[in-house]
Sequence to fold (287 residues):
Amino acid sequence: MPSYTSTQKAAIAQFTSLTQTKDSVAAKQLKSHNWNTAQAVDARLRLLNLPLKHSYFQSASTSTPPTPSNNTAALNKLFDKYRDNPTVEPDAIGIEGSMRYLSDLGLSLEDPVVFAILSELGAPTMGEMTRQGFVEGWQRHRAPDLPAQKSQALSFRRSLTSSPPFFRSVYKSTFRLALTPGQKSLALDTATEYWRILLSPPSLGWNTGKTPWLDWWIEYLGERWKKGVSRDMWEQTGVFVVKSLEDESMSWWSEDGAWPGSLDEFVAFVKEKRGPEGGSADGMEVE
Fold:
């Protein structure tokens, strides 16, 4: 067994005792629930459509209200409907099945809500879903059927613009979803397309009164950035986006900050665009 703390080892032992699973399965499930034994056991038993074994787990305080077991059956049945190859991959929905599913939700791949859904369902990559992620994800949102899931998609759409934490979560997950197996960075044209989708309405529009941030960002990338996009560049750009929307004068910016070179250069690019009369990016103060 890999190196775990004494608390984590105890959690694994408790999980295996209650669910009759292997240590490796227990560790994976616990990690996915931040080592919260109650949530991990509850999720495992609900996924298997089994009753909870101890009242402690039935009454444990979690962020997700209990979901009736018949919802698990309904979600499994819905998942089965979209599987591409039930014989070879009984617990996976591939690209074709994902397209049919999203179409039934009234969504296209160019809709930013798709990224939110795949993020909430723990999808391993763009256009693929697992049974566990699908069932547990929709259980958390109490959406056991297509009508409920369509309603939840509308809620996700609102949250992309009204909830910065939700947007940041979806934004970060999109990088992982966009990677192909074996990749550690995104091709610039691929990342640019995802930025166009995530940073334009109906998602969070990256524009302020005096600054067309998204247009300038894409222009800068096309003219001066010839490399791929690393995870750090992607995530720090997301931080920059939120801060620039809060204060377009960039009084929070510091050249000595731990920003990637791409953003240092982009700030210089913005100064050039604004010109001497712009002024709002000059005389910056360190936060």
